[in-house]
Amino acid sequence: AMLRLRLLTWDVKDTLLRLRQPVGQSYAAEARAHGLQVQPGALGRSFREVYGAQSRRFPNYGHGQGLSSRQWWLDVVKQSFRLAGVQDEAALTKLAEKLYRDYCSSHNWETLPGAAETLSRCRQLGFRMGVVSNFDSRLEAILSQCNLRHHFEFVLTSEAAGFAKPDGRIFEQALRLGGARPEQAAHIGDDYSRDYRAARAAGMHSFLLRAAGQGEGPEVPPEHVLPTLSHLLARIEK
């Protein structure tokens, strides 16, 4: 069956870009530069705990609760270090500011295999392209730094949209921005519920990036699964 697609929307984290190293390692390296010894493993664990709690308490970076995403992240970083035993508040403030800036650059992000080639090819084929990501306002800068921004007509973050995936309203905004009806659009992402299932619930096509041996998730028709990004072209060739 030929998919009559006009618009492709893309998740970013772990679909197009991934962290160069685990958060605990980056945070520990930055702490060392400030003369503080903290175990990467401990920092990684506290980060996951703090990030989870902050996300539940202030969903989507505290949008609608009076927080800026910058403040949201500075709190997460400081609390992660506190939980890992760092008490020096002046150092925490400096660390948080520095890490907030560092995660805005290609210093901490790398492109997934096949991403740049696949995006270029999709553009050559004439697809309209956009990003739909549960990310904060730094995403434009990150995509520019990693030399991917030029592939997209729009970058829609959950912070800007006011809704986070799997909420269908972020996909509705993306369809408006991309000038397409749901059945003319496909979303590509690595998360079953936030990307694959949510886009389908909004009436779009979608493809799930799922590397072989990545643990068995819910059943997805094999023609909707991408073992690598390079498999996308065969699925959507016009």
Topology:
Blueprint lengths: L6 E4 L6 E3 L3 H11 L6 H18 L1 H4 L6 H15 L5 H14 L6 E3 L3 H10 L3 E6 L5 H7 L8 E4 H4 L6 H11 L6 E5 L2 H10 L3 E5 L15 E2 L5 H5 L2
Parallel strand pairs: 1-4, 1-6, 4-5, 6-7, 7-8
Antiparallel strand pairs: 2-3
Helix pairs in contact: 1-2, 2-4, 4-5
Instruction: Note poorly predicted spans.
Output: none
CATH architecture call of the largest domain:
3-Layer(aba) Sandwich
Gross morphology? elongated
Major beta sheet summary:
6 strands, parallel
CATH class designation of the largest domain: Alpha Beta
Number of helices: 11
The CA-CA distance between the termini, in Å, is: 11 Å
Specify the structural class: alpha/beta
CATH superfamily membership of the largest domain, which one?
HAD superfamily/HAD-like
CATH topology of the largest domain: Rossmann fold
Mean pLDDT: 94
Strand order of the largest sheet: 5-4-1-6-7-8
Helix content: 40-55%
Strand content: 5-15%
- What's the domain count? 2
N-to-C series of helices and strands: EEHHHHHEHEHEHHEHEEH
Number of strand elements? 8
Rounded to an integer, what's the Rg over CA atoms? 19 Å
Task: Characterise this structure.
It is a single chain. It is built from eleven helices and eight strands. It is α/β, with parallel strands linked by helices. Strand 4 (128-133), helix 7 and strand 5 form a beta-alpha-beta unit. Helix 4 packs across helix 5 (89-102). The longest helix is centred in the first third of the chain and has 18 residues, at 40-57. The N and C termini lie close together (11 Å). The relative contact order is 0.17. Belongs to the HAD-like hydrolase superfamily. This is Haloacid dehalogenase-like hydrolase domain-containing protein 3. InterPro entries: HAD-like_hydrolase_domain (IPR051828), HAD-like_sf (IPR036412), HAD-SF_hydro_IA (IPR006439), HAD-SF_hydro_IA_REG-2-like (IPR011949), HAD-SF_hydro_IA_REG-2-like_cap (IPR044924), HAD_sf (IPR023214).
